[in-house]
Amino acid sequence: MTVDEIGVKQYQLFRQFLEQACGIVLGENKQYLVRSRLSPLVKSIEGATLNSYIDSVLSGNQSTRRAAIEVMTTNETLWFRDNYPFKLLEKEILPKLIEKKRSNRIAPIRVWSAACSSGQEAYSIGMTWLNLKKLNKTPINVEIIGTDISNEMLQHCQAAEYDQLAISRGLPAQCQNDYFESIEGNKLRVKPELKRLAQFRPINLLASYSSLGLFDVVFCRNVLIYFSAEVKKQILQKIAASLQEGGILFLGASESISDLTDEFSMVRGSLGLYYQKKPQ
Ligand SMILES: C[S@@+](CC[C@H](N)C(=O)[O-])C[C@H]1O[C@@H](n2cnc3c(N)ncnc32)[C@H](O)[C@@H]1O
Fold first, then answer.
1. Nearest residue to 121 (alpha-carbon basis) of 130, 131, 111
2. What is the reported pLDDT for 2?
3. Running DSSP on this structure, what letter comes out for residue 25?
4. pLDDT-derived band of residue 269, with 50, 70 and 90 as boundaries?
5. Domain residue limits, the chain
6. Residues linked to residue 161 through DSSP beta bridges, in sequence order
7. Which of 3.30.43, 2.60.40, 1.10.155, 1.10.20 would CATH assign to domain 8-72?
8. N or C: at which end does the chain have fewer Cβ atoms within 10 angstroms?
């Protein structure tokens, strides 16, 4: 075995650690993935090898554990991903919520972007709201909470600065003009009008979310795919408890929750599919 190979036992223990810490299930033969993701961390410590790094994670060292979780998460995201959830928000869901909240104007519409990565989903929800507000002069406000397990991603969300590659992935020119300003390094920064709609917090989907309060809409997209069926069930139960009655859940385009929960009805809208919390 060379210094860059992971022993069979060590790989099994690392898989267990990752699943317990953040739910991510690694297949039997994903040693190459662990190797490629951990290698930059190993190289940053003089004299370390892949095996000594994994030993440190397994022995409970907090900083190596945190760093390993950071690199093992996949943070792929883009603006207005899949398009239809944002169209549905604009055309059907937000207008209905505005109507529903008319009698209690103080309460904002609350939307949660669970596993928000670098913030594109949360800010896309915000842009959808601001576009709608141009036509519908409602006094009601929206509050968007973005959460993720990755501190690095949350710092990115908070900084709200995006390079040209990130911008080129789905941000319409009109939104770019309206809600972003140019800054140094050929980057764009989210304008205050949009930024102030969103707050970002660290939340592990395996832990409790009760501190976040109740939401009208939850986006939990492209993250459940990494988890076991049992963990998905537990998360869906907690999301249901975080939703107002009749609240809406969006999943990723390739994700399904049939067989996992009976707390939601599947709604086939004219623009696409979403889930609605059933009455208790
Ligand atoms: C592929 S991105 C999805 C981003 C966005 N929701 C989208 O659909 O474009 C998955 C995100 O889930 C986060 N994640 C993974 N495990 C998590 C956990 N246990 N709790 C919270 N976030 C987690 C990762 O850090 C990553 O940012």
1. 111
2. 57
3. P
4. confident
5. 8-72, 84-277
6. 189
7. 1.10.155
8. C
**260 neighbors 229 (Cβ within 8 angstroms):** yes
CATH number of 84-277: 3.40.50.150
C-alpha distances (whole Å) from 144 to each of 8, 17, 73, 84, 208 are 44, 32, 23, 19, 18
**pTM of the model as a whole:** 0.96
Report the residue among 201, 223, 238 best suited for mutation to probe ligand 1: largest number of ligand atoms under 8 A from its CB.
223
Ligand 1 lined by 222 (C-beta under 6 Å): yes
Backbone angles phi, psi at 146, to 5 degrees: -105, 135
For the chain, the average pLDDT equals 95
Mean pLDDT score, 229-256? 96
CB-ligand 1 contact for 131 (6 Å cutoff):
no
